[in-house]
Amino acid sequence: MAELPGAVGVSRLCxxxxxxxxxxxxxxxxxxxxxxxxxxxxxxxxxxxxxxLDGFARTPLRQGxxxxxxxxxxxxxxxxxxxxxxxxxxxxxxxxxxxxxLTFPQHLLDDPETYAAAATLPDGGAPGSDLGAAFxxxxxxxxxxxxxxxxxxxxxxxxxxxxxxxxxxxxxxxLAEWRRRWESGARAVAEETGRQLDALERGDxxxxxxxxxxxxxxxxxxxxRGMCGLLEVYHSRKG
Length: 239
Fold this sequence. Notes:
Blueprint: E1 9-15, E2 30-31, E3 37-52, E4 55-62, E5 66-69, E6 74-89, E7 101-102, H1 106-109, H2 112-119, H3 131-153, H4 158-171, H5 175-184, H6 186-201, E8 221-225, E9 229-234
């Protein structure tokens, strides 16, 4: 199976509808280190809370809205009722290989084994696994996120920068694998466009001979326990 256009990842997300410790309903705050993420809101309403070096923000989410953010932006979905989203992820394969760090309290971020124990769901979050574990993980991340957000609102970005450094330390052992996935995925797809442009300049239409139609008739999995909600996951290729 070929890559999706631009080597993106796509999934459908039903945002969690249970209360977090701060009284808001929704998902687990986290950031990606190498991947931009986009939301296409298909139903319901809510908002996304974001935190980066520009500060804390809330962006409304309503049907038809498209919102995206770049690496290093902590994001947390808040569900005001029936919020469902199509999620587009840059660099398909990297998020699946761990390009996400949750905003746990600092003492859980200081040791990779402690972090992994808190972040890992039973059966990897497979459909039918313990949903309560996903909520407990969410609640821990909200606890840490609240500290970072309140400090930023008061003009202190120090805790956020400390979190950034901790996140980078946690993922460093994965970087060689991420590079391999990027080189065989998003980079290879972009370079193929360059070869096609070169061919068109020569009047060479040979790549038309490989023209094809691909289809994913439905999601590969339904109700996977994700960070922000229940996921319908589409896999276009093996990792």
